[in-house]
Amino acid sequence: MAGGNQGTLRLLERLDQPGASGGLCSIQAAAELGVDHQTLVGAVKSLQALGEVIEAEARTATRWELSPEGEEVLRDGSPEVRLFRSLPEEGLPQGEAMKLPGGSLGFSKAMANKWVRLDKGAPGGPRVLRAVPSVQDTVQEHLGQVRTGGAQAVPERDRSELKRRKLLLEMTLKSYWIRKGSAFSTAVARPETELTPEMIATGSWRQLPFKPYNFSSLGLPPACGHLHPLLKVRSELRQIFLEMGFTEMRTDNFVESSFWNFDALFQPQQHPARDQHDTFFLLDPAEAPQLPPGYYNKVKKVHSQGGYGSQGYRYEWKVEEARKNLLRTHTTSASARALFQLARQKFTPVKYFSIDRVFRNESLDATHLAEFHQVEGVVADRGLTLGHLMGTLRQFFTKLGLILIPSGLKKWVEVGNSGVFRPELLLPMGLPENVTVIAWGLSLERPTMIKYGIKNIRELMGHRVNLQMVYDSPMCRLDV
Amino acid sequence: EFDELCFEFGLELDEITSEKDIISKEKGEEKAKGASDVVLYKIDVPANRYDLLCLEGLVRGLQVFKERINLPKFEKIIPAEGEGQRLIVTEQTAQIRPHAVAAVLRNITFTKDRYDSFIDLQEKLHQNICRKRALVAIGTHDLDTITGPFTFTAKAPSEIKFKPLNQSKEYTASQIMDLYRTDSHLRHYLHLIENKPRYPVIYDSNGVVLSMPPIINGDHTKISLKTRNVFIECTGTDITKAKIVLDIMVTMFSEYCEKPFTVEAVEVVHPNGKTHIYPELAYRTEKVKPEYINKKVGISETPSSLAKLLTRMCLKSHVTGNGNHLEIEIPPTRADIIHACDIVEDAAIAYGYNNIQMVIPKTYTIANQLPLNKLTELLRLDLAAAGFTEALTFALCSQEDIADKLGTDISATNAVIIANPKTAEFQVARTTLLPGLLKTIAANRKMPLPLKLFEISDIVVKDPNADVGAKNYRHLCAIYYNKSPGFEIIHGLLDRVMQVLDVPPNEENGYTIKAAEGTAFFPGRCAEVFVKGQSVGKLGVVHPDVITKFELTMPCSVLEINIEPFV
To answer: Is A271 strand, coil or helix?
Structure first.
């Protein structure tokens, strides 16, 4: 800082000298003051920050310099001239000519200049002969001119040729033209950057000038941790359900039996969803050791024979099929378990929700992953109607910031799924006959992608996430 | 307007397009040249509404809905003794395809459109209710080319020989299987009978092969626009679905018979000598109380109005018993109606979902969070406040991720193994959160150091005592990745976690860490975390081999604990 300060002062003094009234070039000034140009630019910038002390106009200058190869040519001459000059009067066989100073590069340039010729018919193979009596090394001369600051005297065409040959380098140099400003003074006190404990203690801050802050730049980002955007939406959805009086269900089993995932939900065993193509089945543990005794017989009966007012599907229900373990394809299996537990006791109305992972053996693309989160809401009470389902959905989606056009259930399917659980599902569990259960579900990813403007689901979930996106994502306020 | 009508009828008009549009979208404009410009309406039909799968049924359904026609009554004509067709089922079919039903459409008139629709409906049923012919396969034959009685049997593939549909010569059944191995359509069905000792086959009384279900019909009996009498057989492994499929075929196309909506019955003789007359064409009557419908939907319509709504949905209804009951006739076309709740749904569709008043249930409940999830939420906030960033990684991964790459054997992980993964990324459920975090860092190597990540999520391990044989555990994992391992930082994070969990650092009623070993850790740089004497996890410097195997270059340290003991 001290050096910088000194540079500033010396620059101001130089500006104050007679003869600098028209201004100074920063490059020249740096050379005169014997400081690095970059240091001088620093001084210019810090003076500019003080207001009208100086005026500085940015300029761009081009400078030509010799490359290391260029320096070599300046010293030894160009390859073509060296070749020409080494070539004896009677010429040389081509192979030997290549070994002369200047080598093959010199040879090809000399050929191009028509300084030498190749006699293909010469006895003993092609022979290189001089084609002109003498040559002049303009390349070397031009490089010499550049070296002594006379780059402008070299014709433009030759300059670019030398640049192409990588003998010359074109350097762009940013410089300033510096003049005195309206508030010029060599006695500029270096303004203080920050308030210090000493200044507060001594009260010196009252007399001191302070450097103005640059309010247009960004501040220093705080060192902090971040929550994942999808899980921020999960927290928000949990909050919404809690606000609506919904109790959280247990969902802590990714592994589920086909029984709970399908059969208990009155999904027939031949249903396409039970295909290998859609569902991850398990090799180990391949089968669920326990199905709920008693209840599973009732499920078997309602599938194969009907009952509870239902015709059933009338097919041969196989317990082996029900035992097959899988990774749950929806959290409705957890809802079924919760309702089954509910049916174990004297009925009281409930509102349940869950948000957890589900798995599909799908082909992956921008909108499909093999695992995603399902959000599910369930209400069980006596006398619930389709109107109640629709009313609940409207309330829920309004809180989600999605105002639904009341165009019926079919249209709502676009966002998620909803419906009334069938009696064939509820009555075998032992729930009272007059209890209706309404439910709906949606993926957590869909509203999150909308909320955070994410096009590809793989950028949201999984290890390929872009951490910068996680760092930068705003808080989740769905209703704003 | 058509869109609106579909919507009112409970269907969704998916797309208005043409053959030309479809081809040009899928294969480019060049290929679409010369394709038909005729407008196509693509309609989404509920999966169990088999009666709406063909134009005949859809138009009939909409006409009834708009009250332009009454739903026709389908009639089964039983021919006089000895004059009807018989299908004899032999006991050999029991092992492969035990069920068969059949019917005859007499004096039918096909046009190009009707014929195409007839073929198309079979294909749609095959894909849908027939589960790609596994449950039911349909065969349709020109009855005038064959002579009953017919025999449905099963024979060794070498003993079956006939000219398959649209082929020029005879093949044995084994040759037929080879012939269709590369057929884009039929190859999908070969597995249903392949490797079975006997293949199902239907003969007429002269030994002519009608079909070898579920693969192919014989060429001899193929129907054409000129066919007047059609013999329809449905064979399968599910008798209920076979009956439904036959009912749908005949109810949809008997419209074109000389006596519309009549079907000639066929007698099926079972191996035990019992006989059945098909098609069933069963009409069933359901009695439902009007208030049941009103209560389930949330409306208050009069019984007669409800009856009218249901009649419009092809469920002919009338009010009985002083208006206390609705009698609803379920026609053979509506196999999807298996419970009164299905009747309620149709009433709601006909009433119009948009006309139902939305009400918030009065259900009064107190909300509760799941304690484990509540703890997880609180810990997430404190971990982020401690400067760590949350990752969200997949619960499924490769065996390599949880075993080889961590220097352990898969058998030691107790992991749940997936039977049918499409790629190696889904071979197992994770048993530790560590691989996911290491992979997250590998995918973010360009980010400025240090990287400090955490995840609180479930892992899965086998557990013979659990009802499904496996159990989830909620883990907390955190990682510090920088130019130096920063064990003290991860250790400090453990201390902070214990602090917010109100667990003091002591042996008796708090937590301690003790030197331990772990294949994923650098020797001498691993400790086990004990809470009240019980091990909850480990922390330490990651083994250089592990770092390399996850394509990382910097040292790092990790902490992974089970948080369930803290609930």
So the answer is: coil
Would you place residue A411 in the very low, low, confident or very high pLDDT band (cuts 50, 70, 90)?
A: very low
The answer on pLDDT for A404 being more than 60 is no
Percentages of chain A per state (helix, strand, coil), in multiples of 5: 40, 20, 40
Percent share of chain A, pLDDT over 70: 95
The angle, 0 to 180 degrees and rounded to 10, between the axes of the packed helices A138-147 and A79-86 is: 140
Model pTM score:
0.79
Q: What is the DSSP letter of B207?
A: S
Q: How far apart are CA B39 and CA B37, in angstroms?
A: 6
Q: What is the DSSP letter of B308?
A: H
User: Given an 8 Å threshold on Cβ–Cβ distance, is A255 in contact with B422?
Assistant: no
B523-536 pLDDT, tens per residue? 999 999 999 999 99
Mapped onto helix, strand or coil, the DSSP state of residue A283 is strand
Nearest CA in chain A to B452: A225
Residue type present at position B297: V
pLDDT given for residue B329 in this prediction: 96
Residues B419, A281: C-beta atoms closer than 8 Å: yes
| Paired sense of beta strands B262-269 and B75-77, if any | parallel
Q: What is the pLDDT of residue A242?
A: 97
> Quick one: how far is CA B263 from the chain centroid?
33
Q: List the one residue out of B239, B247, B186 whose CA is nearest residue B217.
A: B186
**pLDDT tier at A42 (50, 70, 90 boundaries)?**
confident
Judge if the upstream peptide bond of residue A293 is cis by omega within 30 degrees of 0: no
> First vs last Cα of chain A: how many Å apart?
49
Task: With cut-offs at 50, 70 and 90, classify the pLDDT of residue A406.
Answer: very low
The whole-angstrom separation of Cα A473 and Cα A458 is 16
> In the prediction, which pLDDT does A300 show?
97
**Distance between CA atoms of A417 and A438, rounded to whole angstroms?**
11
For chain B, positions 97-136, list CB contacts with chain A under 8 A.
131, 134-135
In whole angstroms, give the CA distance from residue A462 to residue B440. Answer: 8
Other CB atoms within a 10 A radius of the CB of residue B197 amount to: 11
- Please name the residues between 430 and 489 in chain B that touch chain A, using a CB distance below 8 Å: 436-437, 439-440, 442-444, 447, 451-454, 458, 460, 462, 464, 466-472, 474
- The interface predicted TM-score (ipTM) is 0.91
